[in-house]
Write a structure and sequence with these properties.
Radius of gyration: 29 Å
Protein name: F-box domain-containing protein
Number of helices: 17
Organism: Auricularia subglabra (strain TFB-10046 / SS5) (White-rot fungus)
InterPro entries: F-box-like_dom_sf (IPR036047), F-box_dom (IPR001810), LRR_dom_sf (IPR032675)
Largest sheet: 16 strands, mixed
Shape: elongated
Strand order of the largest sheet: 1-2-3-5-7-8-9-10-13-12-11-14-15-17-20-22
Number of strands: 22
Length: about 575
Amino acid sequence: MTMEADWLRDWIAQAVQCMFSVWRDADEETFSADTSASIAYAIGTVSVILKEAARDALPVHTLCKLPRPVLCNIWSHLSLHDALALSRTSTALYNVVFYSPELWTDLAAPDGEPKLLHPDDLQVYVKHSVAEPLHVSLLNTGEMFVPQAPVLAQAMPRIRSLRLDCCDLPEYCAPAESLRGSFTWASLLRVLAEPAPHLVSLQLRHVEGELVDMCYPTDVCIPINYSLFSGIAPSLRRCRLGSILLPPVAQCGAFENVTAFSYTISLGIFHVTIALIMEAMPRLEVLELASFTFPTVPGGHERVYEAVPHSALRILIFSFYVMHLRDLACIFPLEQLQELWLTVHTTHIYKGLRELYSGTVGMRLGLQYPAGIVTCLYIDGSALGPKVVVNNPGGLADILSSFTALVWLSVHEHLFNNIIAGAPPPLPALEVLCVCLAAPSAHVDGWPDGRHPARDSSGFLINDSDEPPWEFPALREVRIGVLSGAYGDGPCSIALYDVARWIRHALTFGSAPGAKLDAVVLSGVWVADMDFCAAWKALMEGTESILLEEESDPRYFPTDDMLPQTRSASLFPT
């Protein structure tokens, strides 16, 4: 080792020892996440330098003396690959990693994107981890299947959560040993025939594409022609399958106790598949289906699908490019559902919703990036009404023309720019209009709260459009606020004068000229008028009272972002 390497090793050792001595006696409460993240970054930097200059020189004795909660906090900010590489620099640190159930729970639990494991790392984890049961998350491509298959087969009785994302590379870039034209996928499926007595969560996807693009399932579906886990998976509760064909009902014994099931397939889901799912999973409470087309009635309207009764079902999450609501209502018992989530790409769905849910009294309209409107219906005043997501709907008129009897309406502020695509119809029964302000990150940068007074991307308060005002004959109250708990950096600001001008030019209400609102309510925002008294007076010209609330009313501005992917993640925790 050269003199420069010796100097670098000693300098790093002293720096790391000094850094960790400060937190040697720290506990889980006083050791903040920010501090642990900084230390984790420092560890990663030090380890990279040590690999180049002086291998095996990391002063791990100081690290090993830290309290275990502190170690867990540090390791939670490291990728599994970095943690394994770092553990190999010292026997002492290796023991800390591989004999710590808490660390392995954090490292190996499927969190976000699947972790790419080397087969040797998987084998070491299964062999040395004392955490019971195991959590395994694998991204498999080609040659990785063969060495991982026997390891998984051996560990299956100990696994609690299993996530397998199997990538089938395109033909133009697929190596000879890849899935295409090989038996590696079939060999892995044979591993899934092993009993899994402790398995609670399963995710199995067959995808096609580069490793950086794993969003879409392949058109080629892999069949399971045997009993999954030999029918022995009594603890299995959550299951997600992508581009996997289910076996016959007689071979679905492993799904008997499943309560949440997600099924994604590209070409289409048929009625027989839905009937199979319902029969094989009698305890099913949550069902998520995603495909290009929902099964339509052959021959037009002459044939109606037979209903599939299921007394336990309470939540449906559907994502289909083409779907008719009448077909959905024919198959599923929609009247017993607590939640109905629909993602479609056509606007005719709203006419069907109007017929199905004629008692809709309230509606929330949110914005789904990069395009699309999220609609939440409130049936008979209930906050657990069906939720509908429509991509590229064309305008507010397409939605509201089917629901002209609304009593209250909440609209995302960016959607007011959408009015130019077609003036919304008058809402003769509307009494309360709510405007939900966008998060600061959704606005232009350079201002303390992200809002630009002249070129704000929302622009609903700066009404320079020639469109006629929106008609609300029965309107009595206007509320402007933010989603409950949405602003960690503080509330955004708004000017009373801009609100007064917007009400005066963009809205029409009352039956006589000069009519006033009962109240204007500003919730969870800062008032930012230079001349507060003049702005207050201008706003009072159009309302009887002004209320400033410190927090938004959760009835109109709840924390729910109404996105189906968020709801799906909460129902299928890893």
